[in-house]
Specification:
Elements: E1 6-10, E2 31-32, E3 35-36, H1 37-47, E4 52-57, H2 62-67, H3 72-80, H4 84-94, E5 98-103, H5 110-115, H6 118-121, E6 126-129, E7 133-136, H7 141-152, E8 156-161, E9 171-177, E10 182-190, E11 201-202, E12 206-209, H8 211-217, H9 230-239, E13 245-248, E14 252-255, H10 259-272, H11 277-285
Parallel strand pairs: 1-4, 1-6, 4-5, 8-13
Antiparallel strand pairs: 2-3, 6-12, 7-14, 8-11, 8-12, 9-10, 10-13
Helix pairs in contact: 8-9, 10-11
């Protein structure tokens, strides 16, 4: 049985790439078909057997909390209209996990956001999944990370491969291959120039971290970017000779981090949808632009 019992979902970002849509609503609540993007992430976490989820939120993120809470008025209205299927769907959402919420008062980096939840984690490893990390996979990506952690019991970074012209957007991780899905990380570079990237393996925002990572994060005042970043903690640990592992994630990363990719994700999942798929395919074929 895995030692991972909790997951932290950092969702405090402003979502500036989606303005003006995110002026009054969280980017994580933007819809992908009939569900907000963050619900896909939560379902992925729950599919791994995790029952406690901690959201790190910020100002203007109340809609996330409301989404995973009870809505008495809406449920009563659905019951009165005998819309039982929709009523059951809503009840499933609020029962997905035990949810907790903490705030990141200032946007000081992803590592700083994660630190806000440290007191709710205690002295145990925890999964970290960012609120826009949507995946289509046969096995939950969180379960994949947990399997690797159970083998090595050191921090595990979820990895996927991107094209050379996109690699400058991400933290890049390279190392020694241990098996088909695992590497021991020997080098990491934050947002390198495309031509200087040591590899094309990047993290989509999925990790297992240990209490030691929290300890290191708590010592960082200003990282290389001026913020407290998770990658800064990993660099410090590598300098101290602490092992880090990368898990090559199986499945399709559905990046919802900007408007174009959100549209692509909606089309991808729409084409796979049992009810919408055929109609969407016909619509796309019939487009005359």
């Amino acid at each position: 049985m895995s030692k991972i019992k909790k997951a932290i979902l950092p969702v405090a970002g402003f979502g500036t790439r989606f303005l003006p849509a995110t002026k009054a609503q969280p980017k994580e609540m933007l819809p992908v078909l009939n569900k907000p993007a963050v619900q896909y992430v939560v379902e992925n976490v729950v599919a791994a057997g995790i029952e406690e989820i901690i959201f790190v939120t910020g100002r203007g993120k109340r809609a996330i909390e409301d989404h995973f809470d009870i809505s008495y008025e809406l449920e009563d209205a659905l019951a009165e209209k005998n819309k039982i299927d929709l009523l059951e769907e809503l009840k499933k959402i609020q029962g997905l996990a035990k949810f907790s919420y903490v705030r990141q008062p200032l946007q000081l980096g992803d590592g700083h956001a994660i630190l806000q939840a440290a007191h709710l984690v205690g002295d145990e490893p925890v999964a970290i999944i960012f609120g826009d990390t949507v995946y289509d996979s046969n096995v939950s990506i969180v379960k994949q990370l947990m399997d690797t952690y159970d083998k090595y019991e050191d921090p595990v970074i979820g990895l996927t491969e991107v094209s050379r012209d996109e690699v400058h957007k991400f933290g890049v991780y390279s190392g020694v291959s241990l098996d088909e899905h695992t590497i021991e990380i020997k080098q990491l570079v934050e947002k390198p120039k495309n031509e200087e990237a040591p590899a094309l393996t990047v993290t989509p925002g999925a990790y297992i971290i240990t209490p030691e990572v929290f300890e290191v994060l708590s010592t960082i005042e200003h990282g290389n970017s001026g913020e407290i970043r998770l990658i800064d903690a990993f660099e410090i640990m590598m300098e101290k000779g602490r092992p880090l592992y990368g898990r090559i994630l199986e499945g399709q990363w559905l990046d919802t981090g900007d408007p174009l990719n959100l549209l692509k994700v909606s089309i991808y999942l729409g084409l796979k949808h049992p009810e919408m798929g055929s109609k969407l395919r016909e619509y796309i074929k019939g487009l005359k632009l």
